[in-house]
Amino acid sequence: MSPESTGQNEHYIRVARRRFRAWRGDRPFWAGLFTILGGAPIAYFPYADLHLGSMTLTMSTTAGAGSLIIGVLLITLGLTMWFHHIVRVFAGIAAILLALISIPVANIGGFIIGFLLSLIGGALSISWAPGRPEGEEARADERTAPSSEQPYAERPEAELQGAAAVPHQQSAESDTAADADGGRHRAG
Predict the structure, then answer these.
(1) Which of 27, 57, 105, 119 has the fewest CB atoms within 10 Å distance of its CB?
(2) Using CB atoms within 10 A of its CB, is residue 70 exposed (0-12), middle (13-18) or buried (19+)?
(3) Can you tell me where the transmembrane regions are (predicted)?
(4) Tens digit of each residue's pLDDT (9 = 90 or more) over 48-80
(5) Cα 168 to Cα 8: distance, rounded to the nearest angstrom
(6) pTM of the prediction?
(7) Would you say residue 145 lies in a domain?
(8) How far is it, in rounded angstroms, from Cα 69 to Cα 77?
(9) 137-166: per-residue pLDDT in tens?
């Protein structure tokens, strides 16, 4: 390859790995993974057969359909966390509720394994927040930091933001009779 060529200079595995890292950083990846891994044992154990030598132990219960529904919903919520991360808070709350419901319905929450994984995944999904681009962090700190040149009472109103803004209060000289009376007018 010549230096003038526009061909790819990096190995395709490095490029794919970098793209995956960027994709993973834009969404609650670990929350979705824990939720999916938690839904699998909840859905699987009620339909599993355990073979001990020549003896087969069937773990099917009457709650098999409920376990399957809870497990499939948890897997779906994990995929939702990955591909529709806008609704991550809803998906996290739903995952926590389904994990709690799986304790009495699905063999003690997939023998506690599925319960714990789903609970951790839901909590991670609720607590995840999208990151800011690198240059934006310093600018955001500059905008929200109060200036120390002027005391709070003397700062211009444009600098006071949100709940810190104090509404302009009228003095006693500018009150009208209606204002002083609480806004009530007497009929007379």
Answers:
(1) 57
(2) buried
(3) 28-47, 59-79, 86-105, 111-129
(4) 777 888 887 776 666 678 889 999 999 999 999
(5) 62
(6) 0.63
(7) no
(8) 12
(9) 656 556 665 555 555 555 555 555 555 555
Tokens 């739903």, residue?
94
| Segments in the chain forming alpha helices (H) | 12-25, 29-44, 64-83, 88-105, 107-111, 113-127, 134-144, 177-180
Burial class (CB in 10 A: 0-12, 13-18, 19+), 99: buried
Residue 159 lies in a domain: no
Least Cα distance to 95 among 64, 61, 72 occurs for 72
Total number of domains in the chain: 1
In this structure, the number of other CB atoms found within 10 A of the CB of residue 50 comes to 10
Asked whether residue 143 is domain-assigned, the answer is no
Helical packing angle, 64-83 and 29-44, nearest 10° = 170
- Domain limits at 39? 31-127
